[in-house]
Amino acid sequence: xxxxxxxxxxxxxxxxxxxxxxxxxxxxxxxxxxxxxxxxxxxxxxxxxxxxxxxxxxxxxxxxxxxxxxxxxxxxxxxxxxxxxxxxxxxxxxxxxxxxxxxxxxxxxxxxxxxxxxxxxxxxxxxxxxxxxxxxxxxxxxxxxxxxxxxxxxxxxxxxxxxxxxxxxxxxxxxxxxxxxxxxxxxxxxxxxxxxxxxxxxxxxxxxxxxxxxxxxxxxxxxxxxxxxxxxxxxxxxxxxxxxxxxxxxxxxxxxxxxxxxxxxxxxxxxxxxxxxxxxxxxxxxxxxxxxxxxxxxxxxxxxxxxxxxxxxxxxxxxxxxxxxxxxxxxxxxxxxxxxxxxxxxxxxxxxxxxxxxxxxxxxxxxxxxxxxxxxxxxxxxxxxxxxxxxxxxxxxxxxxxxxxxxxxxxxxxxxxxxxxxxxxxxxxxxxxxxxxxxxxxxxxxxxxxxxxxxxxxxxxxxxxxxxxxxxxxxxxxxxxxxxxxxxxxxxxxxxxxxxxxxxxxxxxxxxxxxxxxxxxxxxxxxxxxxxxxxxxxxxxxxxxxxxxxxxxxxxxxxxxxxxxxxxxxxxxxxxxxxxxxxxxxxxxxxxxxxxxxxxxxxxxxxxxxxxxxxxxxxxxxxxxxxxxxxxxxxxxxxxxxxxxxx
Length: 647
Known about the structure:
Elements: E1 2-3, H1 8-19, H2 26-47, E2 60-65, E3 70-75, H3 82-90, H4 96-103, H5 105-108, E4 129-137, E5 144-149, E6 154-160, E7 166-173, H6 188-198, E8 206-215, E9 230-238, H7 255-265, E10 274-280, E11 286-292, E12 309-313, E13 316-322, E14 334-338, H8 355-378, H9 380-400, H10 406-409, E15 415-417, E16 422-424, H11 426-431, E17 439-444, H12 448-452, H13 455-462, E18 467-470, H14 475-482, E19 484-485, E20 500-504, H15 515-527, H16 529-539, E21 545-548, E22 557-561, H17 567-574, E23 587-591, H18 596-606, H19 610-627, H20 635-646
Parallel strand pairs: 2-8, 12-14, 17-18, 17-20, 21-23
Antiparallel strand pairs: 1-6, 2-3, 3-7, 4-5, 4-7, 5-6, 8-9, 10-11, 11-14, 12-13, 15-16, 15-18, 19-20, 22-23
């Protein structure tokens, strides 16, 4: 037995147990090596006219023997001599493929795509095999040689027999032990699944004998009651697709093919809403095929949802979901990125460093933004469906970035316009604003119907101003993070757009009253100081103030929030798991001094009926809360109070 030409036991143990984390990738590595061997022969045929190859010779075959517990990967590539077997397999981390790639870098161009670089992929076989036998015959040689090892101390090289050039890698799988089962690699389904998953786009056919059924010929003497009979047979099938759809010219691929690829590879039953690609050449060359789904996956907003694009290197799957390729606000995007320029780590399971990923991710984000704008402008109906599915994520992107992403994402948002009675963008809202409007007004709550009936919304509309009716739980937080918005089409510097404050109609002073109305409200408050003090005392800590409203027309009272926490924010935070500790809004009860109810309040105060003033204060306060969609503290007491008035 020959010893490995390194500190074999330690290094081989590192290869088998530390470098690779997923044992099923052994097949990916062996198929990649086989593809390299075929590529080398193909390249040689381009420079040596004496080598004539038929297309059927450029193939890789995978087979298994369940009884013998073996898996075999065979290729018809360039093969290896005895010395090459000794050098390539006996010296761990020696890559003949890398040497070939370096020696032929200028000549090979795009016709040859060598995958192997580190010379360790072969040893991943020992994760599943208790012994590995490699039988190889070099092209043009009459001799075949066998390399064999149990992956412990060393290996043997001896003469063997093989028909034709190429290499067979025969793995004798480990025995099952406890929870460790290797039987999945001894089944047609298991091997086909691994080939489709990791090596579907290797450029040469990966073939297997597969089981099929067919109907037997109908006997000539069969009567009318004859039932068809079927028989089983095996046939050599090509398992992989070979040519990635993202590397085919767009003119050669139909929309149906793109849709079928999306639904098959990303396990969706609905067609994507948009399909688009990126082709980049230069210091970092890559291809990307991206999809915007037509519907939201059921787990999109769950903690178990994992974003990311499938990452390929030279058509071989490296990561199923590379999270670094997508920002969180575009977590719904599906697709693939393929580049042969990525700097992979030794296991080819992750990347050596992330600067290349960041460059690709930046381009992907820019492309997605561009496509969404096109959809918004050219297919509004489709975009509204998209926003219904994924708009929450865009708003959350603004909120979670503390408003830093508003310049990129705000123009993609849609909100329901109370005045126009349709979804509009913020730019469309600004375009329709009357002259003199000082802010963008919005109302936040559970439903458009409820918000449209709110007295404050009606007041703002009566002034001629539009109100955006916001029903998503993140809307209020998004607007609070943005604070202001200006037209997206305008530039910077002297041409910078005027910034309009985003104002919740239920918070603070909207500054909608005329000077005359403000003066009248001040006089009313001064004349009724005793009443307002009594009302404030009756409500206690429930409110921070009771004032005269300059924003109400028909309603007797309303609740507004004076501080940074709005009523809607309080309601949403109260519904969270730790809602008991959620911050409260600074509630203000505003009274309509022109409403008949105010006269009743004043009469009770003048009559010195403190109990009636307290009763009316609580009724008005609870009514205002109900109108806002807020819970009242004691529904039973409220019901009893209403009943008492009716009795």
